[in-house]
Amino acid sequence: MxxxxxxxxxxxxxxxxIGGGFGGLSxxxxxxxxxxxxxxxxxxxxxxxxxxRLEADGFRFDMGPSWYLMPDVFERFxxxxxxxxxxxxxxxxxxxxxxxxxxxxxxxxxxxxxxxxKALFEEYEPGAGEAFEAYLEESERTYEIGxxxxxxxxxxxxxDYVDKDVLRYSWGLSLLGKMQGHVEDxxxxxxxxxxxxxxxxxxxxxxxxxxxxxxxxxxxxxxxGVYYPEGGIGAVVDGIVELGEDLGVxxxxxxxxxxxxGRRGGFALDTADGERYLTDLxxxxxxxxxxxxELLPKHKRQYSDEYWESRTYAPSAFLLYxxxxxxxxNLEHHTLVLPTGxxxxxxxxxxxxxxxxxxxxxxxxxxETDDTVAPEGHSNLFALVPIAPGLExxxxxxxxxxxxxxxxxxxNTDTELRDRxxxxxxxxxxxxADRYNSYQGSALGLAHTLRQTSLLRPPHRSDALDxxxxxxxxxxxxxxxxxxxxxxxxxxxxxxxxx
Length: 499
Fold this sequence. Notes:
InterPro entries: Amino_oxidase, Carotenoid/retinoid_OxRdtase, FAD/NAD-bd_sf
Shape: globular
Domain Amine oxidase: 23-495
Strand content: 15-25%
Number of helices: 15
Pfam family, one: Amino_oxidase
Radius of gyration: 22 Å
CATH topology of the largest domain: FAD/NAD(P)-binding domain
Pathway: Carotenoid biosynthesis
Keywords: Carotenoid biosynthesis, Oxidoreductase
């Protein structure tokens, strides 16, 4: 793979990046390396965007992303600057990758051993072991072609796809079907289907609305592995910030941008504390809808309010951060708790929004791997329940749902937490909206539906205001930490084309 995007045209330009999530951090590094004078303004008290950290009473939590997947993307990112991830943080491959509890009492561990996983699939369905191999072969091919020709190479216009090379690369890829139908072609057993589809939560979708192209996530999961960066995802943020500082990026926290004003030859940006920043170019890693609806005058917006209202958004989340006395031996670093039939939960997210009454959820217990995230003799864990964006979010509803989740954990993982909790905090719809200016309080942004994938996502360059660009999960390639890192490269390339 080519690791040298051409962005030298920005040399000497001043650029302000709004927002310090992975997309903003990545863009800032690429532009600074190419010779731009880069200042990054972050609304909150720490960098990382949704990858914030919560530290209290000796506990340290990754508040957002907690899975380190697609290590090749991180290697490529740091490699562009002549660096390696290991210069900034160490990785440990998890074993098992994760544990799954089903609510009928069944339990499996997915291991960093392909043959063991193949045997596991065969136990559930005769012939499923060979189907597993065939599925992963297709998934690997989809990953290799998709990443090189459709992820790292931005194709923002329809004519970019009407090309013989694109047709040659995409031949045989599942571009139009849905994940549910694709997985059913390989496996009949609903639990095996779930094992191949749970990663869709990382894309903010469901099996019935996510394109089959994202079968590539199974290659990420089963072939490439699940890792833990020592110190958590926050350590990755620290590493990229250190890299950015080495490249000359100026980082400013507690600097909430309140307005973007186009001026002759550049921009003026106002912040909540009364500062004004003058710059040649602007890149927004803030929520795309917030940027357009709140920071720009109406005549400089690409999309109407009705456009944003009509989009399909990835779930929000009910998050319960817990510091507990003692161990949680039944839980692994990553644990999933799933109903045997999870369609009802997805319906309560995408079709008939409601607080899920029989939730599928995720438990993260990093203290099982890292003894620095909790005081001695204690465990650190959080529960994440995907819920519909825009739901009513009140203290009373949170307390009621907190009790439901703790009861469910006790019943289905045999892990009683109530009497051992020494630290507790929740994070939910209103917090995503308030802290990250997230539209409808979505935890991730626009879902990856067929109508919101690739060129159908909002562009990196504004067509309403010259010199304004966008990066992050709402743009291409989309949701997830690795994708946001890549979005930074794509934004920098687009900026260099038109700067």
